[in-house]
């Protein structure tokens, strides 16, 4: 049976083209802006943004532990996010938000601050793994402080100068450390070079600081631009768009500032205003932590302050008694933040041979 041929007749419903028939122009291609992810496990997912790439020649100040005919081998450390989920009272609790905040803060430090001998070197990121840092062979500053026989005066001043040099370099980029303690400072072997690390609590000095007890997942809406009142007598209450109403000039665009939280670090090194949730100057809080480290360094021992006294900016009786090297400096660093606490400046570096007066 022969198949019958079908004729298809095209019918136009309207005499002119409809809106969906008009060709649309594709928007111009703009530069891609990296938006931080909401999941810490996807920070290093493919493709790794160029923002987190390694600086030029990242191994410049590192010594290889082995060399071949065509290569050099360096020891590195890979730091990857560790998300933990627990069920508490029938509800799932996770540290994902805090892990993401700490990793983004640490990446901001390593990709903003220029190379410095007293800051751990950043070697880039591994896709789907984490960030790569130099391997520091040595011990913590706490291990150095508690060793016997005690440190000499020259050694104490040398550690003071290296810490001050690294912190002031970090502060010059508008960033704080946020968790400065004896455990977050490494000392290499055998050169005794101080290395600052663990910048997960770092914040920017020009940010807007929210209380650490505030839920950051519920962001308040952006404030509307205030409109000036209508001053024309021809404008009625029902009509604000009278032709006689003067048109005010457009206000300048609002510059949004990043909102960050300052969380308490390691006791007793956290500043009192941080413990109270009232810190507004993170670099000045680092100065308090630096002062407590100097007390430990001068005494060659770990000190403690009762948390209820520390929140009130109180020091134990005789806390500074017996300090032979840093007494005057510790007194200034441990003052209340709004009562003359001294900032960290490179000019305060001490000479090893002669005592420097403030």
Write a concise synopsis of the structure shown.
This protein has 358 residues and is α+β, with helices and mostly antiparallel strands. The chain has seven helices and twelve strands.
Protein architecture, described:
The protein has 358 residues and is α+β, with helices and mostly antiparallel strands. The chain has a domain at 66-211 and 258-348: Transferase(Phosphotransferase) domain 1 (Transferase(Phosphotransferase), domain 1, Orthogonal Bundle). It has helices at 96-112, 141-145, 153-171, 272-275, 282-299, 307-310, 327-333; strands spanning 66-67, 72-73, 76-79, 85-88, 91-94, 122-126, 130-134, 138-140, 185-188, 194-196, 208-210, 259-261. The protein has a 3-stranded antiparallel beta sheet, covered by helices on one side. A 3-stranded antiparallel beta sheet has the order 8-9-10. Strands 1-2 form a two-stranded antiparallel ribbon. The radius of gyration is 29 Å and the shape is globular. The termini are far apart. One of its GO terms (molecular function) is ATP binding. Residues 59-358 form the Protein kinase domain.
Summarize the topology.
Blueprint lengths: L65 E2 L4 E2 L2 E4 L5 E4 L2 E4 L1 H17 L9 E5 L3 E5 L3 E3 H5 L7 H19 L13 E4 L5 E3 L11 E3 L48 E3 L10 H4 L6 H18 L7 H4 L16 H7 L25
Parallel strand pairs: 11-12
Antiparallel strand pairs: 1-2, 3-7, 4-5, 6-7, 8-9, 9-10
């Amino acid at each position: 049976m022969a198949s019958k041929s079908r004729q298809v007749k095209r019918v136009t419903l309207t005499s002119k083209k409809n809106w969906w028939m008009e060709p649309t122009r594709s928007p111009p291609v703009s530069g891609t802006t990296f938006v931080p992810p909401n999941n810490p496990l996807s920070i290093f997912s493919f493709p790794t943004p160029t923002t987190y790439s390694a600086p030029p020649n990242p191994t410049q100040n590192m010594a290889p532990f082995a060399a071949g005919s065509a290569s050099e081998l360096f020891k590195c450390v890979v730091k990857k996010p560790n998300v933990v989920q627990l069920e508490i009272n029938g509800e799932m609790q996770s540290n994902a938000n805090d892990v993401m905040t700490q990793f983004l803060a640490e990446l901001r430090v390593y990709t903003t601050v220029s190379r410095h001998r007293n800051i751990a070197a950043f070697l880039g990121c591994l896709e789907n793994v984490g960030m790569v840092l130099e391997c520091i062979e040595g011990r913590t500053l706490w291990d150095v402080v508690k060793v016997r026989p005690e440190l000499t005066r020259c050694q104490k001043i040398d550690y003071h100068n290296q810490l001050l040099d690294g912190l002031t370099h970090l502060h010059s980029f508008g960033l704080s450390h946020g968790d400065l303690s004896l455990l977050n400072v490494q000392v290499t072997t055998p050169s005794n070079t101080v290395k600052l690390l663990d910048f997960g609590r770092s914040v920017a000095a020009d940010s807007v600081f929210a209380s650490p007890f505030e839920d950051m997942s519920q962001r308040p809406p952006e404030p509307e631009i205030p409109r000036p009142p209508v001053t024309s007598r021809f404008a009625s209450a029902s009509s604000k768009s009278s032709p006689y109403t003067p048109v005010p000039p457009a206000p300048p665009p609002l510059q949004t500032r990043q909102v960050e939280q300052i969380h308490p670090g390691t006791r007793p090194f956290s500043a009192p205003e941080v413990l109270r949730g009232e810190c507004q100057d993170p670099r000045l809080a680092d100065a308090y932590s630096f002062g407590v480290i100097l007390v430990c360094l001068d005494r060659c021992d770990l000190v403690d302050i009762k948390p209820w006294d520390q929140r009130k900016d109180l020091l134990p009786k005789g806390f500074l008694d017996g300090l032979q090297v840093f007494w005057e400096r510790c007194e200034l660093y441990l003052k209340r933040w709004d009562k003359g606490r001294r900032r960290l400046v490179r000019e305060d570096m001490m000479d090893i041979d002669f005592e420097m007066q403030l």
